[in-house]
Amino acid sequence: MQKIVVLYLVFGDEDLDNGLYEIKNILNNMFDYNDVKYVVIDNSNSIKENFIDEPYIISGNNSYFDFSGWDKGYLFALENNLISDETLILFANDTFFQRNYSDGENFLEVFNKDIIKNKDLTKSAIGYMDDFPKDVILNDIKFNSWIRSNIFFIPFKIMKDLSKLTFDFPKERIFSDDINKFWSNDDLISDNWKAYISSWLFGIENNNYPEYKLHWLKSKPLNESTWDFFQRKAITILSEHYLAARLFNMNIEIIDTNIFPKDPLRHIKPYYKEQE
């Protein structure tokens, strides 16, 4: 029987029940038998906390959105003895069943028994891999792909080594004091990563890196009113990417649920499908 702890990150209760329903469906599709414990982390701090029975509900930490919330949920699970050495931890947020991607439209269906057949789930992460067109560098680790962080699995044996998910480096190594530059000159992060994420966050495409032109659905210009928000969002993306970089550096297998054909234009065409 597979032991699982679900850390489900929400912002208010609007998507609480639907998300838990979808998570249960995914787990039933993946495992014949499972022993699941649910922890809901509410980053809006508007849902009444429940420490007595499941789903446990705790107030989150929205400093760096999902990742700071998950770190708090993981600590709660540890302190309350919900996790053992054989536990597989599912991290999910309340967007995982609502996104309308242009590629991999039915990606949740790939979380099934076939994808994990004959795999050692105490030594493997599971998730949908996105990628950059070229290698980037974070903290001297070269990589070009990462786990899409709206839903993924990490076994406890690996989480013990990772310790936390949030990108934990001094902000002055990441950001400039000059709003017109945004990024620092520190070599902690490669220049092409900074250019790619500037395109993603601000819609600013860099002629020196024409291979990447993707824009986030909430991208907007950088100014004084958005500066703090975008710093927090950038650290969230760094946390997402650095997770995969560390896993690669640890030689951890990532079971990739992105089994779909890879469009050669995927880094320059719209990331989301047009809404009808």
What order do the helices and strands come in, and which of them pair?
Layout: E1 2-10, H1 16-30, E2 34-42, E3 56-59, H2 65-79, E4 88-93, E5 124-138, E6 141-155, H3 156-162, H4 191-202, H5 227-249, E7 253-256
Parallel strand pairs: 1-2, 1-4, 2-3, 5-7
Antiparallel strand pairs: 4-6, 5-6
Helix pairs in contact: 2-5
Q: What would your notes on this structure say?
A:
This protein has 276 residues and is of the alpha/beta class. It has two domains: 2-134 and 144-167 and 252-256, no CATH class; 171-244, no CATH class. It has helices at residues 16-30, 65-79, 156-162, 191-202, 227-249; strands at 2-10, 34-42, 56-59, 88-93, 124-138, 141-155, 253-256. The protein has a seven-stranded mixed β-sheet with strand order 3-2-1-4-6-5-7, sandwiched between helices. Strand 5 (124-138) and strand 6 form a beta hairpin. Helix 2 packs across helix 5 (227-249). The longest helix is centred in the last third of the chain and has 23 residues, at 227-249. The protein is globular and about 50 Å long. The mean pLDDT is 94.
Keywords:
single chain, 276 residues, alpha/beta, 2 domains
Largest sheet: 7 strands, mixed
Distance between the termini: 43 Å
Poorly predicted runs: none
Main sheet: which strands, in order across? 3-2-1-4-6-5-7
Order of helices and strands: EHEEHEEEHHHE
The secondary structure category is alpha/beta
